[in-house]
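Justification of resources, computational component.

The compute hours requested in this renewal are based largely on the per-chain cost of generating structure records like the one below. Each record pairs the submitted sequence with a full structure-token output. That output is archived, and it is also reused by downstream analysis tasks.
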Amino acid sequence: MSYQVLARKLRPADFASLVGQDHIVRALRHGLDSGRLHHAYLFTGTRGVGKTTIARILAKCLNCEAGVSASPCGECSVCREVQENRFVDLIEVDAASRTRVDDTRELLDNAQYLPARGRYKIYLIDEVHMLSASSFNALLKTLEEPPEHVKFLLATTDPKKVPITVLSRCLQFQLKNISPERIAAYLAEAMAADGIEFDAEALEIIAKAARGSMRDALSVTDQAIAFGQGRLTGHDVAELLGAVGRDEVAAVLDAIESGDPQAVVRISEELAERAADFEATLAEVLQALHGIAVAKALGQADDHPALSTEAVQLYYQIALTGYRDMRVGPDPKTVFEMTLLRMLAFAPDAPSAQSVPPAAPGAHQQPDSKPGDAARGPAPSSSGSAPAPMPPSPPPERSRRDDGPEALATQWLELFKRLELSGPSRAIAEHSVLMGKDGGCYRLRLDETRGALFSGERNPDIERALAAALGQPAEVRIETGTLAAESPAKHRERLRVEKQAAARRQLEQDRVVQSLIAEFDGRLVDVRHLGNP
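The structure output for this chain reads:
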């Protein structure tokens, strides 16, 4: 007997075997058991979530020789023929290949005749949204006044393209994407039943790659079993899909936590050699950071206790920005590397190792304490009362390498993104760069070409917005002059130009565009990115 792929072998034969669509099953079961049958059902949802499978199970329920019920016997000739896709009164149509109105009319002309063997003649139209407007009109006439022996089961991945007149005449059921956890659990049961060795990580990778589609998960599993010579391991599945497992994500987080740029570059090179999907890898890093953030918020243990809550939040925001830049960057590997290096560059300062904790009540200050000590309590009074607690020492100043114009400009760019400003105040902040800071005082320089925006030294709106972003009082001093670094406005303009250039290069390298230019002796005059004004 020839091999049967998992997607067909494991196709559910009844509602009890269906995975992840409990809300649909509940509604259909109640309708079948109570005799409340509609003449047209519309099943919508992404690929591989069970639209056609549910339609075939419903066909069994309606035509089972044991009677109409939510639990077909599965043994009668009708149930077997439906399962084997050879039941004469179940007419399956692929709307994508039969879009013409003549095809639809020919199909529906036979609807007036009684079924040959079953209780109902059932029309299962897959991808119904592909029908032409004339075909929908022809279908609509039958949907308005259907014969009692006819049932329509429609399936589509794009219900927005189905006319509202058709939608209003159907019972609509929206199928959900199946969660990775349920997909992995189902695959584990299937592999155990088939005696196939597997590890949990392999199934987790497959479940995530399926993106909610059980059929895709089963197809990938088939491929992975062949690749692994009858076994499923996380390493083999990750290599097959160009995905990353928990070990690789943990290595990325370890490199960030240790502040090791060499490790970051090495990991990036290793992923490139494996032809890994850098966009998916960054998505996994985002998921891992989210998990760490939730664990810390709930006071639970996590795998990276050395990462502070603030660092995790910052790294998540940087990774999210990098994920958005994947489609406009020069190449995914570069964007991935720059995202991780940006995390290292903006890593929060660690607490000073030389900080001395405040003295315990009644403790005496050592006579040889140096002026640079982080905490010093006053000498106890003659009465022996405890010294008044002193405020904690301020965080150490950033190293000199972070005081250059480019580093300060980058710091201001990140701060500017967090400021809630509008109108002239926003324009001032956007066309300024950070010249330096002294405690809570930030010194800004406004581009001299925008000097008309401001005639003073302080702006209360910017000070309030900065204080809200920092969570502490802030003072802003503004001067006007020539900028030696990139302001947020210049940064935005540079990104726009780069995006425009990248779009032009992409079109110039597109084979279809090249063939059009060659065939019509044309030239590429102007390219406008949809994200640009």
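Residues 350-375, 377-401 have pLDDT under 50 and may be disordered. The two ends are 61 Å apart (CA to CA).
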